[in-house]
Design brief:
This protein has twelve helices and eight strands. The protein is of the alpha/beta class. The chain has one domain: Alpha-Beta Barrel (TIM Barrel). Helix 11 links the parallel strand 7 and strand 8. The longest helix is centred in the C-terminal third of the chain and has 17 residues.
């Protein structure tokens, strides 16, 4: 599959819809692909998902035309390298605080001349060979999606500087951590939280980068879509399963 098709769609101004995966199940990934979503974010920060799980989930995503992105647990050269070598189409980094953090991410995730990512062509990402293919390296640099997650007020104050960094694609606002940072924990629909997010999205979009965020409801997803969020994640695998079975039980038993 074309690894950059979702990236290209978003840069063309189209909204791409994804969801979060916290359950280590390739079967769930396939179901999401059959439903026609654009991408999934495999979460390695808050879940029990391992690199072994990630490998099979990436393969399942690709088989159904889904772009598999991975949120690693922290800004680490080792985590970024292992995730990309496993075959992820992009990485999402939590708690990015400064432009210096963003520059490190590019350094660790891009090959020369953009960065210093370690070369291991014997991996899945290298197509299991010992040959060095410069075209493949350039392709990886072009296609890999880089998502910065900003979750504090201090990081949002530095958005303008981060948008100037070459190689950064998406700047993602985590509404729950932002609401907590603003002294409004969990109040993701509070007017002050919404106002701040809208102002940041405008700045990101005007810079030519892609805005990203999370919606916990369909209504919120539509609102984010209408204010320029093109990397749009809604719900999670577990919460959608829970709500579907809750509704099933209520309809039958009540």
């Amino acid at each position: 599959m074309n690894k950059s098709h979702i990236k290209e769609k978003m840069y063309s101004g189209n909204v791409c819809l994804g969801t979060w995966l916290f359950l280590p199940s390739p079967d769930i990934v396939e179901i999401i692909g059959l439903a026609g979503l654009d991408f999934v974010v495999i979460d390695m920060e808050h879940s029990p998902i391992t690199y072994e799980n990630t490998s099979s989930m990436i393969t399942a995503a690709e088989s159904k035309g889904l772009a598999p992105y991975v949120r690693i647990s922290e800004l680490s050269a080792s985590h970024i390298l292992r995730t990309l070598d496993t075959g992820a189409h992009g990485i999402q980094i939590p708690h990015v605080e400064t432009p210096q953090d963003a520059k490190k991410i590019i350094k660790y995730s891009k090959y020369y001349p953009q960065g210093e990512r370690g070369m291991a062509p014997s991996t899945r990402a290298g197509q299991y060979t010992l040959k060095t293919d410069k075209k493949l390296l350039n392709k990886a640099n072009d296609e890999t999606l880089i998502v910065l997650t900003l979750e504090s007020e201090s990081s949002l104050d530095k958005v303008a500087e981060m948008t100037e960094i070459e190689g950064v694609d998406v700047i993602y606002i985590g509404p729950y951590d932002l609401s907590q940072a603003m002294g409004l924990p969990g109040e993701v629909d509070h007017p002050e939280v919404i106002k701040k997010m809208e102002r940041i999205f405008t700045l990101i979009n005007e810079s030519g980068k892609i805005s990203g965020s999370f919606a916990n409801t369909v209504q919120r997803a539509k609102r984010l879509k209408n204010i320029g969020v093109n990397y749009l994640t809604c719900e999670t695998d577990g919460t959608l399963l829970r709500s579907a079975f809750d509704e099933l039980k209520n309809q039958i038993m009540n």
